[in-house]
Amino acid sequence: MPAPERFENVTAVAKANVYFDGRVVSHTIHLPGGERKTLGLIYPGRFHFGTEAAERMEIVAGACRVKVDGSGRVDEYGAGQTFEVPANSGFDIEVASGLCEYVCSFLP
């Protein structure tokens, strides 16, 4: 199931989360039930992220290549596709060109 195009009745945090000298930028939203998500953009490059909570990354637009820590394989994802990363882990993500837009959901 693709990521929603809109989120209703949320609280948006105006201060951006800026990583890698502005090559990855996201904003946090809080949903009514207490769920937290980030909505973001990844510019071309290769980046590593660590995770505390488990995450589900939903690609909204663009494309990326991902290698989850501990996995020997690299997978490609495009608009409408998702991947999950376990808690206390991490992943490498590479965007070859254009922008990769995503929604990150923090899983229980």
Structural account:
There is one protein chain. This protein is an all-beta fold and 108 residues long. It has one domain (23-106): Jelly Rolls (Sandwich). The chain has no helices and eleven strands. It has strands spanning 11-12, 17-19, 24-30, 36-42, 45-51, 55-61, 63-68, 75-78, 82-85, 89-95, 100-106. The strands form two sheets. Strands 1, 2, 3, 4, 6, 9 and 11 form a seven-stranded antiparallel beta sheet that branches. A hairpin with a 6-residue loop joins strand 7 and strand 8. The chain starts with 10 loop residues before the first strand and ends with a strand.
- Under CATH, the topology can be stated as Jelly Rolls
CATH structural class:
Mainly Beta
Describe the largest sheet: 7 strands, antiparallel
Give the end-to-end Cα distance, rounded to a whole number of Å: 19 Å
Count of individual domains: 1
Q: Helical residue percent?
A: under 10%
% residues in beta strands:
over 45%
Rg over CA atoms, rounded to whole Å, is: 13 Å
> What's the SSE pattern?
EEEEEEEEEEE
Q: Could you name the CATH homologous superfamily?
A: Jelly Rolls
- Form type: globular
| Proper CATH architecture | Sandwich
How many extended strands?
11
